[in-house]
Amino acid sequence: MRFEYCPKCGRKAALREIGDEGLMPYCEGCERPLFDLFPVCVLCAVTDGEGSFALIRQSYVNAGTFVGVAGYIKSGESAEAAAEREVREETGLTPFSVKLLGTYPYAKKDMLMIGFLVTVRRSEFALSGEVDQAQWFTPEEAVKAVREGSIIQQVLLDAIDFRSNE
Ligand SMILES: [Zn+2]
Fold first, then answer.
1. How far apart are CA 120 and CA 90, in angstroms?
2. Per-residue pLDDT tens digits for 93-105
3. pLDDT tens digit string along 46-63?
4. How far is the CA of 21 from the centre of ligand 1 (A)?
5. In a 3-state reduction of DSSP, which class is residue 74?
6. DSSP 31
7. What is the CATH number of domain 40-164?
8. How much distance in Å is there from the Cα of 10 to the middle of ligand 1?
9. What single-letter DSSP state applies at residue 147?
């Protein structure tokens, strides 16, 4: 999101040349550049460490396909802590390792997704109210269970690649 007004004082943003960034919105009241703002989300490939991946289904998002555990990072929280919290909240499983896979811009929604490989202790799912179903898949099945060309599909492919290089 590009600022038109300063989020702090409400003054209309001017445009100013900011170093290598070129013309950027700038608040002349607060004397600060207003860099673009966009939500940052974590997106998790959840594995049991033995070759299976857990995916979830949320009918309010998409009834047909499975998705990955995802969520927004809270203010003051690290991305790793957010990934661990979201997996715990949505699946009821206990993570014991969180590894960064990469970052994935999601142009359609003007978001940045941070992809993690989250290894959990395999046990019964205890789903949050936002989740209708969770299921374990082989890597090949997992890649096919999500929407073709989706970011979670890329995260799963990167997770499989990451695990085979470990
Ligand atoms: Zn301002």
1. 13
2. 999 999 999 999 9
3. 999 999 999 999 877 666
4. 19
5. coil
6. T
7. 3.90.79.10
8. 6
9. P
User: Contact, 98 vs 80, CB < 8 A?
Assistant: yes
**pLDDT under 50 in the chain at which residues?**
none
Q: What are phi and psi of 52, to 5 degrees?
A: -105, 150
| DSSP designation for 146 | B
* 76 CA to centre of ligand 1 in angstroms: 23
Helix (H) or strand (E) holding 52, with range, is: none
- How many A from CA of 2 to the centre of ligand 1? 14
Length in residues, the chain:
166
Could you tell me which of 65, 61, 49, 67 has the C-alpha nearest to residue 155?
A: 67
Residue 86 and residue 71 in contact, taking contact as beta carbons nearer than 8 Å: yes
Contact 24, 96 (CB under 8 A): no
Every domain of the chain and the residues it spans: 1-36, 40-164
Q: Which two tokens stand for residue 117?
A: 């490989």
Among residues 147, 149, 141, which one has the least CA distance to residue 61?
147
Write the CB contacts of 8 (distance below 8 Å, at least 6 apart in sequence): 27, 30
